[in-house]
Write the C-alpha cells for this entry.
Amino acid sequence: MTDPSSAVPIERPRRRSFMDIGGVNSLSHFATSYTRAQGYLGSEALEEDGISPTQEIPADIASHSAGRRQQHGGHNHIKTFSFPEADRQRAALLMRPASETSPLLESAFPQGDHHDDDSDTASVRTSYSMALPSGNSTAPQTVFNSVNTLIGIGMLSLPFALHLAGWIPGMVLLTSSAVITCITAIVLGGIIRRMPHLKTYGDIAQAYGGPYFALAVTFLFSLDLLGASLSLVILFADSFTTVLPWWPAPVYKAIIASIVFLLSFVPLNILSLTSFMGIVCTVSVIVLIVSCGLMLDTPPGSLLQHAKINAWPVDWPSFCLSLGLFLSVWGGHPVFPELYRDMRHPSKFSKTCRQSFVVTYSVDAGIAVVGFLMYGINCEDSIIKNIMGNSRYPNWVNPLLCVFMGILPVSKLPLVTRPLITVYESYFGLNRLDAVKGNGRHYSLGRVLARLAFCGLLFTLSIVFTSFGQVVSFLGSAICFTICVSLPCLFYVYFDQPPMKMRILAYAVSLLGFVGAIVGTWASVTMPT
C-alpha cells in the first residue's frame, strides 16, 4: 500500500490573472495580437521583413535537431525554428542583441537557402530567417486588427465627399469601393495561401513584375506613408488653431514635428502599446460627433433637423475629387498579407475580411451620413472643422475635441513614419554607426541629424500643402486606387489564371482603378486650397 506521505502532489496550472480567461480569445491574447499587428504597421511594406525591431530570439533557437518547431513555455505567442549543427553560425547571427533596424533589414540566410513552411504558421522566410510572431491570432483578433488598420482619420472627410459627389452617387461610390476592396483583400490572402513563399505585398509585387516593379510599388508605399503623416500634421494644426488661435498654424506644425522627432527614438514595442490611445480617441471622436448632432434642434449641426443637402454632384471636378476621398478609407492592403500569416486558422481569412469590412463600412457610412445631415452643403474637408467652428455647442466640446485631435497624431505618427526612417537610414548606412553601451543604445550624430532632417521635411511639406481634404484625396486617388484595386486584380490574373470571363472582369476593374487614380489625382492636385 502506498504511503500517503510519500505521494507526489499534482500541480495544477493556475491562471495568472483574469486577462487569461477565455483561452485563445482572452484579453491577454488580444493584447499580444494587437501588438503584433502594430508591429506590421510600423514595418510593413517598405522593409524586407515584418519582424518587430525589438523582437527577441529565444536563446535555445540553435540547440535542437533540424527541422522541428519548438514551442517555448515563455513565448507561447511565438513559433520558432530550430537549426542543425551546421547552421549554428547563422543562428548565432540571429541571436545578436536586437537593434532598431538589424532584424528588419539584414539577411540571415543567403539567397538560395530554403526551408519548408507550414501554410498557416510559417516562421522562416525563404531568404530572411527570423523567429516570426506568426500563426496565433484567432478570427476575432484578426477582425479587430483589420478594423483598426482600416479605420482612420480619412473618415473625417467622408461628409465632405458626400457633399461633393451628392447623396445618391456618393453612397453608391462608398458601398462599391468597400465591396471591391474587400474582394481584393481576400485575393491577396488567397495568393499567400497558394504561394506560401510570398510573405508580404512587396513579395507579391516582385514575383509579378520583378525587382523594378517592386521598387515602383515601394515608391507608392513611401508616398502613402508620407501623405498619411502629412495629413496627421495638418489635422493637428487645424484643430489647435481653432481652439487656440493666438498662435499661427505653422507653430503647431512645428510642435508636432518636434514630437515626432523625439518619439522616433522610442522602441517599436512601446509605440505599439501607446497607439492603443489612438483607438480610444477615434471611438471617442465618433461618439462626440453623434452627440453634438443630438444637442441642437435646428441646423447647422443638428441631427434632429438636418441641413440642406444635395442629391447629385456639385460639378464634375468636385465629383472627381470625391473619388479619392471615398477610396482613402480602404487603404490597408499592404498589411493584409501579414494579418493572414498571423492567423491561427488561415482558412477563416475570407470570412474575417468580410466581417472587418462590414464593421468598417458601418462606421464610415455612419460618419458620412451623420456629418452630411448635420452640415449638408456647408461641409468642410474635415467634419472636425465644422463642429469646432459652431459656437452653438457647449463650451467643453472644442477643448475635448482638441485633446482627441492632439492624441491621435501623437499616437499614430511615430508608427507611420518608422518604415520611412528605417529604410533611408539603412540605405545610407546610418544604422551601422550606432554604438551599444551598457543597457542603452547611443545614436550616432549622423543618425540624429538624419531624423531631424526628415521631420524638417515633414514640417516643410505641411507648410506647402495646407488642405487636409486635398492630401486625403490625393492619397485615395494616386495610392489606394492603385494598391487596393488595380494591382490586386492584376495579381489575381497572373497567379490564379482564372477563366476568361473572370480574367476580363479583373482587367476591367483594374482599368477602372487606373482611370480613377488618374482622374482623382488630377482633381486633388488642381483643387483650390
Q: What stands out?
A: Residues 141-526 form a domain with the Amino acid/polyamine transporter I fold (CATH 1.20.1740.10). The longest strand covers residues 69-71.
